[in-house]
Specification:
The chain has helices spanning 4-7, 120-126, 149-152, 160-169, 188-200, 217-224, 250-258, 273-281, 305-314, 319-324, 328-333, 413-419; strands at residues 16-27, 32-41, 44-49, 57-62, 67-70, 72-77, 106-116, 134-140, 174-179, 204-206, 230-231, 261-262, 350-363, 369-383, 386-390. By secondary structure, the chain is an alpha/beta fold. The chain folds into two domains: 4-69 and 350-355 and 375-419, Urease, subunit C, domain 1 (Roll), CATH 2.30.40; 72-333, Alpha-Beta Barrel (TIM Barrel), CATH 3.20.20. Strands 1, 2, 3, 4, 5, 13, 14 and 15 form an eight-stranded mixed β-sheet that branches. It is globular.
Length: 420
């Protein structure tokens, strides 16, 4: 075993597995934004207080100068990888979750409709069940899911009954219904999705597809969607979110008044500086910040969730606001209120973030740049109370303080917390 000096163990058995000391805790659900200590035990938040005795923590981590937040929740990603289908979000356009989530402070993701009732079982078996990341999903109203044009334009495959049955059968992971990318004039995709959502008691997320006069955004937001449904890509400008005179479409405000949520869904073609700026200037911020992450967007202007959050800092939002929009707000939207907060007894999904200051540049989906002076980065991520990412080894002892044969010693309690 490591020595007491190396592990933080005292003569008396510590009360907590992990003690994060001195960080600025932001917990939007509980209205907390202040320096606090956070204690974790058995995968749960055990205590939050101004000063917790360091002797009570088995592993004590200095978080001074850092933000301690609930684990980030990305409300719009694409992770149905491994099918080898080219140019498909149920295939090569998607990517496995664990390679990018924890290093970005993310503990929970929402796959935005890659699979439908015909192929969801495969998605669950090959990706969801094998990921350390908590993967939730939207069931695509298209039975074949997000496999491209010939599938996503097939009205005969958009069926509310099988979709609702699928959602009920996988209620532990399916939290909503998705309709996306439809290019025709019919309302059927939206109407079928809403019927499925009503039957299963879950929200609908809409990527509104092509901008057509037969399907105006005004009708979608004031008539077709229900309170609690989600309009993603809200700052794309692709569907008249911004009017020709540069003002936000009044339908956005009317939809919010009705209880519809508005999600960023940055992606490769769905975030425009001019639209976001004008909307925020008019008092219309997003309810949730999400990436629409796939192999294209992550290697273009979007990059990752922390970069997307930093873009809203550059637009004038506060750190507290972007944390709320990436934790508690999306958790409420998908009716998973066990997530997104640091209440005592809650799941210990915790992100420890650093706010860098300097001269930074951020690019939207259309190649335009915005300068910024703040950028968020992830130092550590804890999922279910276990360390999942540690950028600078803050949880570890210096090798010069360890026994010479430290690599061959038996598993310590802390390593067990880390590796299980």
């Amino acid at each position: 075993m490591f020595s007491a000096a190396c592990t933080g163990r005292t003569a008396k058995e510590p009360e907590y597995d992990v003690l994060l000391q001195g960080g600025h805790v932001i917990d939007p659900k509980n209205g907390l934004s202040a320096v606090r200590d956070v204690a974790i035990l058995d995968g749960k938040v055990a205590a939050i207080a101004e000063d917790i005795d360091s002797g009570k923590g088995f592993k004590v981590v200095n978080c001074k100068g850092l933000y301690v937040t609930p684990g980030l929740l990305d409300l719009h990603v694409h992770v149905f990888a491994g099918t080898n289908e080219p140019r498909s979000y149920a295939g090569d356009n998607s990517l496995y979750p664990d390679g990018y989530t924890f290093r970005s402070g993310i503990t929970t993701i929402l796959d935005a409709g890659c699979a439908g009732w015909r192929n969801f079982d495969v998605f669950r078996d090959t990706v969801i069940s094998r990921s350390r990341t908590r993967v939730l999903a939207l069931a695509n109203i298209v039975g074949h899911g997000m496999r491209g044009g010939q599938f996503e334009q097939d009205l005969s495959d958009m069926r509310s009954g099988p979709t609702a049955e699928l959602a009920e059968r996988h209620a532990d992971v399916i939290v909503g219904v998705k309709t996306a990318h439809y290019a025709g004039p019919e309302w059927q995709p939206v109407e079928e999705a809403v019927r499925a959502g009503e039957a299963a008691g879950i929200p609908v997320m809409v990527d509104f597809g092509s901008n057509l006069p037969e399907r105006p955004i005004e009708t979608l937001l004031t008539e077709k969607l229900r309170p609690g449904d989600i309009y993603t890509h809200c700052f794309s400008g692709n569907r008249r979110e911004l009017l020709p005179d540069g003002t936000p479409n009044p339908a956005l405000f009317a939809g919010r008044e009705r209880g519809i949520y508005f999600d960023v869904g940055h992606g490769g073609g769905s975030f425009k500086w001019s639209v976001a700026f004008k909307c925020l200037e008019a008092g219309f911020p997003p309810d949730s910040i999400s990436t629409d992450l796939h192999i294209g967007s992550m290697n273009a202007g979007m990059q990752d969730l922390l970069t997307t959050m930093s873009k809203f800092l550059a637009l004038g939002e506060s750190v507290d606001e972007v944390i709320a929009q990436s934790t508690w707000n999306p958790a409420r939207q998908i009716q998973r209120e066990a997530l997104g907060h640091l209440s005592v007894g809650a799941i210990a999904d915790v992100s420890v973030l650093r706010l860098d200051t300097g001269q930074f540049g951020f690019v939207d989906s259309f190649g335009a740049r915005q300068d910024g002076t703040q950028r968020l980065a992830c130092e550590m991520t804890f999922k279910d109370g276990r360390l999942a990412w540690d950028l600078n080894g803050r949880t570890r002892g210096d090798w010069q303080d360890l026994p010479l044969d430290y690599g061959r010693q038996g598993e310590s309690r802390w390593d067990g917390i880390l590796n299980r």
